Amino acid sequence: MHLKPSQFSIPSLFLPLFLLYSTIHGTLATDASLEFMDPTLPPALPSQTPKCSVLVLHQDFAGTVGSSPVTTNYTHPGDCPAPWTRVVLELSFSASGVHDQKDRVAAVWIDGAEILRTSTPFTINTAAFWKIHKDITRYTALLRRLSGGGGTVSMMLGNSNSNPPGILTANVSLHFYRGALSDKSISTAHPSVKGLYREPADLVIPISQEKASNGSSFWFQIGGNSDMPAASVVIPRNTYRAVLEIFASYHADDEFWYANPLQSEYLQGGLGQPRANGGLRQLYASIDGKFVGGHIPFAVIYPGSINPYVWSPVAAIGAFDMPTYDLEVTPFLGLLVDGQPHEIGLGVKHSQSHWLLTANLHLWVDQWSDAVEAMLVDYRAPPLRVNPHAEWRDQDGSSEIDAEGLLRFIGWVSSSKGNVTTMVRQKVTFKSQVVVQNRGTVRQVEVVNKEAMTVGANRGKNQVVGRVQLFMDAPLQLQMSTVDAAGGEAVLQNTRLYHQLEEVLNLNDNMAVSTSILTDRQDAEGTVLMHDGMPVWGGGSTKSSYKYRDENTCYLRTVDAAGGEVKNDVTSPSCAAVSTV
Ligand SMILES: *[C@@H]1O[C@H](CO)[C@@H](O)[C@H](O)[C@H]1NC(C)=O
Ligand SMILES: *[C@@H]1O[C@H](CO)[C@@H](O)[C@H](O)[C@H]1NC(C)=O
Ligand SMILES: *[C@@H]1O[C@H](CO)[C@@H](O)[C@H](O)[C@H]1NC(C)=O
Ligand SMILES: *[C@@H]1O[C@H](CO)[C@@H](O)[C@H](O)[C@H]1NC(C)=O
Asked: Would strands 70-73 and 113-119 be described as parallel, antiparallel, or unpaired?
């Protein structure tokens, strides 16, 4: 779908603001509580009962900006021992009162290792509640240690309850499952492992701020392009595989990075006041200062960024469970397995203030060896080829930044599993284009974000151990028009949006060959009247469609929402008889 300016009319409303305030606040405020949702594939089957469930943390977050995370000591039920086939984190929230509650960033940690990054909805004139479920089986190493006693679970939610006032209450629960994960009659739950090896890592080491002591969190705050905080780690000498998982969220000047033009002094209204730095960012990591891989992030749209009415009650893609970014760093094990401390650094290329980053280093260790031998044999990591281009006349113009990149790393690890050579190859294609017309009042943003990633492992010359290919395609199209209202005291915005995340995964190991395709798509439009950065009146509609397909399953859920209500919510475990968007 391509949005054309002609599909889009600029309203010529100049309603007095007091009139809007009185009518809208009078009619829309209700006592009912609105449930916000993220319609994705459930991480566990509704028909399954967990072996045990633990309410870990219950907390009211009022004025918590700048304070430390809330931490509790964890106690595991005695009759629920490891191993578990699946573990699900449930985070439930309620937002009190009828006050507007702005979007906030929040996270959950186990013993200082982040396991969920989320953003809260922008509730308008209503009490609200929502639940997030995340499969956290890949953190089994942390959970096993936690269940042994002495561990802690922490949560942080940076809420300012002064303007607007409001309290967010959160419960963190863990559900532990044993036994089979699928059921013949219902679709299987989403597979949690996207990588080569089916087993979760033996160790998960947090790469984060050492201590969440003086008002800061475990997060590293990245102030710009040249910031690269690092954590020192010593890894077991018998590690034979390593994956670095990066958590990221963006704030302040970079909240709308994906829609930033290269030049912006004439832009007004719309997506805040973007800084002119272009719409390209690259998350990356380093070992002892050496670049070891990166990803261009998926543009998670925070509910306060683009017409909050559009995200009521369906959250934007990834807003409730923000995507994390895996780097296969096995080829670099030769740099790490000497028993000495090494610096793992994190950064965001082309960034502005500020990003909040942490990472988890997932390690698989060889029980049958005291130490492995390993060496990096091929390293090709040229910087992204970036091509910026901008043309402006007065307030109108166009700005484009595109990027291409190809990385290749090869390294071998010799352990009791043999001498295995791992090859990582990644190709990225990115473009962000911003066109401004009608004296700065109409803005169109188009983002192309594609990535092809291959990880292959061979034993000896040509015995294939496994191969995984992941193709990601995340297009975004956004059109926004603004017009002054109430004599310039407020701004009326019209927005249309198309956003999609498609992931195709081909997995080939000695157990099976399989392909899975995930397509998560949203089409939305809406109108909002903004006054002092707060929505005072508006409406929106969203169509979302989430489809997951593999050899055995097809799961489709479509949700249509309009005017703050779900109009249509259809789940099809077989993908049949549901019309797609
Ligand atoms: C948690 O455990 C630590 C160490 O045993 C103890 O000092 C602390 O008081 C405990 N916290 C709570 C809330 O029980
Ligand atoms: C949290 O758990 C408590 C105790 O089970 C329950 O009363 C409360 O409603 C829950 N709150 C939320 C937001 O889920
Ligand atoms: C926290 O303490 C560290 C070390 O004492 C200091 O470098 C840092 O600036 C402090 N951070 C804040 C937010 O006060
Ligand atoms: C592992 O294999 C690579 C290339 O196949 C070879 O260069 C290296 O010497 C081998 N390592 C050991 C410890 O055998």
From this structure: unpaired
